[in-house]
Specification:
The complex is a heterodimer of chains A (415) and B (308).
Chain A: H1 2-9, H2 14-40, H3 47-64, H4 68-78, H5 82-105, H6 125-141, H7 145-152, H8 159-185, H9 193-218, H10 223-237, H11 245-251, H12 257-274, H13 282-294, H14 322-340, H15 351-370, H16 375-384, H17 388-414
Helix pairs in contact in A: 2-3, 2-14, 3-12, 3-14, 4-5, 5-9, 5-12, 5-16, 6-15, 6-17, 7-8, 7-14, 8-13, 8-15, 16-17
Chain B: H1 3-21, E1 31-32, H2 34-40, E2 46-50, E3 67-68, E4 76-77, E5 82-83, H3 86-95, E6 103-107, H4 109-124, E7 130-132, H5 135-141, H6 171-178, E8 185-188, H7 192-196, E9 219-220, H8 236-245, E10 254-257, H9 263-274, E11 279-281, H10 285-289
Parallel strand pairs in B: 1-7, 2-3, 2-6, 6-7, 8-9, 8-10, 10-11
Antiparallel strand pairs in B: 4-5
Helix pairs in contact in B: 4-9
Organism (chain A): Antarcticirhabdus aurantiaca
Protein name (chain A): YeeE/YedE family protein
Protein name (chain B): Sulfurtransferase
């Protein structure tokens, strides 16, 4: 941690910094050109929007280091509140946004209908199993799938291995799906909180729970924020074109967690309104399913998957899917953001990083498949949408993190 | 009656006459154009209903004043595999605010497939509806506005008659025609490869029938034959010629079918509403007929179902 802050407060070298900014600008211009081509090139509706949302999401994730595992780990180990407040801000602002959308789409939540394509999953044991595996995978590989994606843009040595492992994990998930579906999912209830509490009651309850969870974190001073403020002050004191200083605050300094969180929630609600809820696994899992089917590992028929809502895709026969474009632009925007901030630091992976990446990735992939989504789809977009499944997955995921870390500590102490 | 009362009564009569003179000036035919709809949006007698296939399509933006009808829950009885029963359909129609004076216009995605299916279901309960020619596709292509606001419509108290089964063909009707016991024309609106028996189901769908092929004597005219480039129906004269050339001229009672009975509603609509022929929709379609034990079929491709 302290090493990272040191690295960031090193006086920046003008040569590489300028090159980084130029490359970042080139990538953002490339994304703009791609967006225009998708909007006017006769492509399917939604692709240009998916690109815009992916770009915004990648930028926000990288600028605020929005990472479920890091936030939880820093809170558990150092009582650093910045990240966890970011997660809770994202849950709160997204729930408000979803409430606005739901009110227009389904004025009466008590009709027994669910709002279209929201991540409202069944309350099945697979959520618990998937959450535990996903949490353990986060602890092993160092973050969840969305964070591995934005870290790919930062040149992380672990991320490529984790994503490769996730592909294997998804394929294993599909391979184990049918018996799990018949045993746990097919008759599990789906609990949508607004149907029980009404929109105002649900939103109030959600915000109260989030405020209660945030309370201990709000009482803590944040060394991270203090360091970030120092960096901002250093940037402001730096000689340089005064007109560019606000740009540096946005593109060079780290954003406070809560700011990134508010943006993540807002992007989630806007994306739901216009394209689909936020989720990063649809494309990955669809590719894994294709590979698994080709290898004879995944059965041709997967029971009930078509009827279940989740971010695990049913089929990817298109070259460009909304989710594929979303994920690619997320990684590109994160790369641009990291380059501009001097945070693109690729290096040769150590063997342990590769191993932890693949092993953690397999658990992330398997967990995300059987829970029908990851920390972004099932947890974030699920809680935004008032699904009890989102909270259940979150609890199982945290349990997975805690249990795995305790096991690792035990093994270390024993050896 | 005192004079003052008489004046009141005639004033009321005059008012009634005036208001009916101002009633929605809907075109006489079964179709309305996007132009007509745009001009008449917001008319109190207009009931606009979207029936789209993809969930979220209506919610992410619909034509102002439109209400959503979900084809797989609102229009059918999913347990019985049947059209929705009178009670639940009446409740739906009341909720939509439809009464005797309403002009009901349906539209939807995918070339109005399911809007046409909706039109057939409404018609079985005696409610004559019109389709927006070209559906969502044309409305969007013309860059006309969409909204996400909810239409507020006061419910009506309309009472529906029992369902008119004359618009519907059952397996026995199709068998009677296929075996030559009854005069009639059968139209298969599926793709030529489904018709010939080369494939059990179109790409992307699982087979739902363990036999491939078609009903003996059925004439294959894929539904899209009737559609122009912009998604509208071709002109009535052209349609008449196209279908007559295939041997469908309305001289005999006609039955249309597809795979699950929805797309065939599109052809049912044009043959019965635009051309005025006597047409029944066979909603059991190939998934019922093809699976029926002993029902005669024609399978020129000789494909055999092997369970895979």
């Amino acid at each position: 941690m302290s090493a990272a802050i040191e690295a960031r407060s090193r006086p920046s070298l003008p040569g590489p910094a300028r090159l980084g900014s130029a490359l970042a600008l080139a990538i953002l211009l490339g994304l703009l050109a791609g967006g225009l081509a998708l909007a006017h090139g006769g492509f399917e509706d939604g692709l240009a929007l998916a690109l815009a949302f992916g770009t915004a999401f990648g930028l926000v994730l990288q600028r605020s280091r929005f990472c479920f595992y890091c936030a939880l780990r820093e809170w558990l180990d150092e009582r650093e509140p910045d990240g966890i407040l970011g997660l809770l801000a994202a849950l709160a602002s997204g729930a408000v946004g979803y409430a606005l959308v739901f009110g227009a789409w389904l004025p009466d939540p008590a009709t027994g209908r669910l709002p279209p394509d929201a991540f409202i999953g069944s309350l099945a044991w697979t959520l618990g199993l998937g959450g535990l595996a996903f949490g353990a995978g986060m602890a092993i590989s160092g973050s969840c799938l969305s964070a591995h994606l934005y870290r790919l843009g930062e040149g992380s040595p672990t991320a490529p291995f984790a994503l490769f492992g996730a592909l294997i994990g998804f394929a294993l998930g599909f391979a184990s799906w049918n018996p799990l579906f018949l045993a746990f999912v097919s008759e599990a209830p789906t609990v949508w909180l607004p149907a029980w509490l009404g929109y105002p009651g649900w939103l109030a309850a959600t915000l109260i729970v989030i405020a209660a969870l945030a309370w201990p974190a709000l009482l803590r001073a944040s060394p991270r924020r203090a360091a970030a403020r120092d960096r901002l002050a250093a940037l402001a004191a730096d000689a340089g074109t005064p007109a560019l200083k606000p740009l540096r605050a946005v593109f060079a300094a780290r954003w406070p967690g809560w700011l990134g969180g508010l943006f993540v929630g807002a992007i989630g609600a806007f994306a739901y309104l216009r394209v689909a809820p936020l989720g990063v696994t649809a494309e990955l899992s669809a590719r894994a399913r294709d590979l698994g089917t080709a290898a004879g590992l995944v059965p041709a028929t997967l029971n009930g998957l078509d009827a279940l809502r989740g971010c695990v895709s049913i089929a990817a026969d298109m070259l460009l899917s909304n989710n594929g474009v979303f994920v690619l632009s997320l990684v590109a925007a994160s790369l641009a953001s990291a380059l501009a901030a001097g945070e693109f630091r690729p290096r040769t992976p150590r063997r342990s990083e590769a191993l932890r990446g693949v092993l953690g990735g397999v658990l992330l992939g398997w967990g995300a498949m059987v829970a029908l989504g990851c920390s972004v789809g099932t947890l974030l977009s699920g809680i935004h949408a008032g699904a009890l499944s989102g909270w259940a997955f979150g609890a199982a995921m945290i349990a997975g993190i805690v249990v795995w870390r305790a096991l690792e500590r035990l093994v270390r102490r024993g050896s | 009656m005192p004079p003052s009362a008489r004046i009141l009564v005639s004033a009321a009569a005059l008012l009634a006459a005036t208001s009916s003179a101002f009633a929605l000036d809907a075109p006489a035919g079964p179709l309305v154009t996007t132009d007509w709809l745009e001009t008449n949006l917001g008319d109190p007698d207009l009931r606009l209903i979207e029936v789209s296939v993809d969930p979220g399509t209506f919610e992410r933006g619909h034509i102002e004043g439109a209400q959503n009808v979900v084809w797989h829950t609102d229009l059918v009885d999913p347990v019985q595999r049947d059209i929705a029963d009178r009670e639940s359909f009446e409740a739906l129609v009341q909720k939509l605010g439809i009464d005797e004076d309403s002009t009901v216009v349906l539209y939807g995605d995918n070339n109005n497939w399911f809007a046409a299916w909706g039109a057939w279901v409404f018609d079985t309960y005696g409610i004559d509806v019109k389709l927006l020619d070209g559906g969502r596709k044309k409305w969007e292509a013309e860059n006309l506005p969409l909204t996400t606001r909810v239409a507020s419509v006061a419910p009506s108290e309309i009472a529906l008659p029992e369902r008119d089964e004359a618009l519907r063909a059952r397996l026995a009707d199709v068998l009677a025609v296929a075996k030559g016991g009854r005069e009639g024309t059968i139209v298969d609106i599926r793709s030529p490869d489904e018709y010939s028996g080369k494939v059990f189901a179109p790409e992307g769908s699982q087979e739902l029938s363990i036999r491939a092929g078609h009903v003996p004597g059925a004439i294959n005219v894929p539904w899209s034959t009737a559609v122009a480039e912009d998604g509208t129906f071709k002109p009535a004269e052209e349609l008449k010629r196209i279908y007559a050339e295939k041997g469908i001229d309305g001289s005999k009672p006609t039955i249309v079918y597809c795979r699950i009975g929805e797309r065939s509603s599109h052809t049912w609509f044009l043959l019965s509403k635009i051309l005025g022929y006597d047409v029944k929709n066979y909603d059991g379609s190939w998934t019922e007929y093809g699976n029926s034990v002993g029902a005669p079929i024609v399978n020129v491709s000789n494909t055999v179902w092997t369970g895979k």
